Amino acid sequence: MGHRLSKLKKILFKQTSQNVIHRPNIIRRETGSEILVEVLQIFPYRVIEGRIFLVDNERYVMPCDIPEKERLVTQHELYKRIWNDNFSSPIHERLNQGGMRVLDVGCGSGAWILDMAKEYPASTFLGIDIMETSSDIMQQPPNAGFLQFNVLNGLPFPDETFDFVYQRFLWAAFTPNQWIQLIHELIRVTKKNGRIELMEIEAKIHNPGPIAKKFSDAAQQHLTSNGIDPKIYRQIRNVIVNSNKFESIKIFEKRTPLGNWQQASHGIKSLENTVAALKSLQVAFKAVLGVDDHEYKAKGFPPTGYVEAIYDGPGCDDRSESFKVESLLAKPAAETEKKQRLNCQSSC
């Protein structure tokens, strides 16, 4: 297994000198100062109010520290439960048969890659992200690997390298033009008989209470001011559909509940994950509102007690607060003249 991944890396790393890929260091977690020192040695970071932010992509509002990575792991487990699997594309048998090359673009914590690599040991999995992916090398499966690289520089792989390309929840990372550029790169590195799967969330809380609405409005205001489209999933869909490079496109939509209004345990987990994300966004919220800590509290944005503020008591269940999540599955056409078929299915 290790030999197969090594062989794949030789293929993937066959690049020009300008596409230098550095193997990420392992970040240990003994002390906060040690984490900070090691992180700052890899990429230019800045520390704001005790949270670590990446400088290379100032549009991306989320921090890239241990608390955020832990939130991403929880988020991975949450959406695996909501969607009943790690993916929706019909590739289970091919993954089990082995030999598939799988790429996760914007892999974040690496939880999806590690989970998939353990479940399908006969296939090879590679995650790429601008921030360093912390993974205990002793726990990392031999068929999994990670690259630290800015995908806005283009994916550093030859054409038609991967059988399955996966990407999710990068809605806050790119402008519409950058999304168009990235989508074309996803298409380029996917084999003609491969699959692409994208999952994105609408940056808006549906049926919000008064405090939740303040957070939702502030988030959309901040995104828009940075050139980010809060409803980018619609444009992603249009770019894919209008590319004329797919013979089959399917779109699935689900509502992710906040709270216990669906009597499902993942509603509470979703609320907790949203609260963690809002805590990570506190720096951005204060910046877009132009307020300090005192004014932030005065406007009804509590730095503590987020669960109570968002949940607003039992009313959250009555209002059915939720997020909309869309999953798009695309199969590249073996021949460009094949007619596309758009099949939208909703399972709200």
Automatic annotation (TrEMBL):
Domain Methyltransferase: 102-194
Residue ranges of the TM segments: none
InterPro entries, sorted: Methyltransf_25 (IPR041698), SAM-dependent_MTases_sf (IPR029063)
Gene Ontology MF terms: methyltransferase activity
Protein name: 13930_t:CDS:1
Organism: Ambispora leptoticha
Lineage: Eukaryota, Fungi, Fungi incertae sedis, Mucoromycota, Glomeromycotina
